[in-house]
From TrEMBL:
This is Heparan-sulfate 6-O-sulfotransferase. Its main location: membrane. One of its GO terms (cellular component) is membrane. Belongs to the sulfotransferase 6 family. InterPro entries: Heparan_SO4-6-sulfoTrfase, P-loop_NTPase, Sulfotransferase. Gene3D superfamilies: P-loop containing nucleotide triphosphate hydrolases. It is found in: Membrane. PANTHER family: HEPARAN SULFATE 6-O-SULFOTRANSFERASE 3, HEPARAN-SULFATE 6-O-SULFOTRANSFERASE 1. It comes from Monodon monoceros (Narwhal).
Length: 477
């Protein structure tokens, strides 16, 4: 009896070993576990399924939802990362230089804060960010600073680009008089010494030298556009017009505000930020400090909220808006209510126009949209960390309402951005599912066509079915 049981155990163990060996050899090739013997779809399962019951708050046309760009890393395209404080930008910035699958990876050496991110075909950067070019336009430069600063910085990094004259195109109301600028700003430009304005081309077209490239331009036309004839001419041979793709991250306003307070409480400051606008920095009267001394360490949340000049309030709107529209930091330029609405509208417009933006609260969706927008893949998936320092702060409902009041513009912007973000994610996922179904249908049709029996000679293409019969009749006749 014992001998029979031992044989049975031996047979079972042998069968199990045989099946395990068979699976190891045959399983990977047969894609066992996948329906139809096919491998599962690429990486869609890594990302959350869109909510079919999501209710849209705003209407966005398809052109605002479609964000599939032809980013040419070997050409002259540049990604510009607008890093807003306490939005998770440090983590995302490291993803850009350390976690993107590239033909030529960024060179990040131990002990160095910046990485070298060159194009595959030449020693020129394709990424303008804290961890690639540093704070070249100032510490945490905003939209107003970056759009006026980035072209000049890259021109200095790439001297070959200076061979191509840049031509600014102005409409009739903005002829080259700099009338919309203050006298102090015009004096600071020293227009007589710098070859800033040279007559060239038709009325309304002015050649701008590198010294004051963005100084006398109206706000809507800040991004330079080279004259195509000059680019293709002999003088500009080898130089092309750069394309700047601006990206950023946003965060829930209350969480972001609390996180900034904790950061400042620990002694952090951004007092080296330039806040450059229309060619100058704000005066102490326009932007008074909230504290005396080297930092504001140890400040309470109440003290943080009580400072009327605290830039933490509505920081996301201010950093995304065109501050030139409201007189920069001069609060007496226009009434407060009109100023707030102009800033909010400008921030929404610039956010829509950006190539990409993500939300800190949706890391996987942010990864998905970035990969589909720029056709770049991350090596490791993004992780969602909900246990932040701001999350550990216990505040009452009254305090939360007070923070929301102080950040009313940011609350409205985030509500708008979140809806646009969710709609873009749903649109892209549905588009990919539809394309996947079409590919599967084509594969099935192709498979059926291959398995179909060969047709006879009577059904050769171009041959009439009754041809043999008619030939036979004629031959008999």
């Amino acid at each position: 009896m014992v001998e029979r049981a031992s044989k049975f155990v031996l047979v079972v163990a042998g069968s199990a070993c045989f099946m395990l060996i068979l699976y190891q050899y045959a399983g990977p090739g047969l894609s066992l576990g996948a329906p139809g013997g096919r491998a599962p779809p690429d990486d869609l399962d890594l990302f959350p399924t869109p909510d079919p019951h999501y209710e849209k708050k705003y209407y966005f046309p398809v052109r605002e939802l479609e964000r599939s760009l032809h980013f040419d890393m070997k050409g002259d395209d540049v990604i510009v990362f607008l890093h807003i404080q306490k939005t998770g930008g440090t983590t995302f910035g490291r993803h850009l230089v350390q976690n993107v699958r590239l033909e030529v990876p960024c060179d990040c050496r131990p002990g160095q804060k910046k990485c070298t991110c060159y194009r595959p075909n030449r020693r020129e950067t394709w990424l303008f960010s804290r961890f690639s070019t540093g704070w070249s336009c100032g510490l945490h430069a905003d939209w107003t600073e970056l759009t006026n600063c980035v072209p000049g910085v890259l021109d200095r990094r790439d001297p070959a680009a200076l061979r191509t004259p840049r031509l600014w195109h102005w409409g009739p109301p903005f002829l080259p008089t700099c009338a919309h600028l203050t006298k102090g700003l015009v004096r600071s430009l020293d227009l007589q010494k710098a070859p800033a304005f040279l007559s060239s081309g038709p009325v309304g077209t002015v050649q701008v030298g590198p010294a004051v490239r963005a100084a006398c331009l109206p706000p809507p036309l800040r991004t330079w556009r080279p004259n195509q004839e000059e680019v293709s001419g002999e003088e500009g041979k080898g130089s092309k017009a750069r394309k700047f793709y601006y990206i950023t991250l946003l965060r829930d306003p209350v969480s972001r505000y609390l996180s900034e307070w904790r950061h400042v409480q620990r002694g952090a400051t951004w007092k080296t930020s330039l806040h450059m606008c229309d060619g100058r920095t704000p005066t102490p009267e326009e932007l008074p400090p909230c504290y005396e001394g080297t930092d504001w360490s140890g400040c309470t949340l109440q003290e943080f909220m009580d400072c009327p000049y605290n830039l933490a309030s509505n920081r996301q709107v201010r950093m995304l808006a065109d501050l030139s529209l409201v007189g920069c930091y001069n609060l007496s330029f226009i009434p407060e209510g009109k100023r707030a609405q102009l800033l909010l509208d400008s921030a929404k417009k610039n956010l829509r126009g950006m190539a990409f933006f993500g939300l800190t609260e949706f890391q996987r969706k942010t990864q998905y949209l970035f990969e589909r927008t720029f056709n770049l893949k991350f090596i490791r998936p993004f992780m969602q960390y909900n246990s932040t320092r701001a999350g550990g702060v216990e505040v009452g409902e009254d305090t939360i309402r007070r923070i929301e009041e102080l950040n009313d513009l940011d609350v409205q912007l985030y509500d708008y951005a979140r809806d646009l973000f969710q709609q873009r994610y749903q649109y892209r996922r549905q588009l990919e599912r539809r394309q996947q179904r079409l590919r599967s249908r084509e594969e099935r049709l192709l498979h059926r066509a291959k398995e179909a029996p060969p047709r006879g000679d009577a059904e050769e293409p171009g041959r009439v079915p009754t041809e043999d019969y008619m030939s036979h009749i004629i031959e008999k006749w």
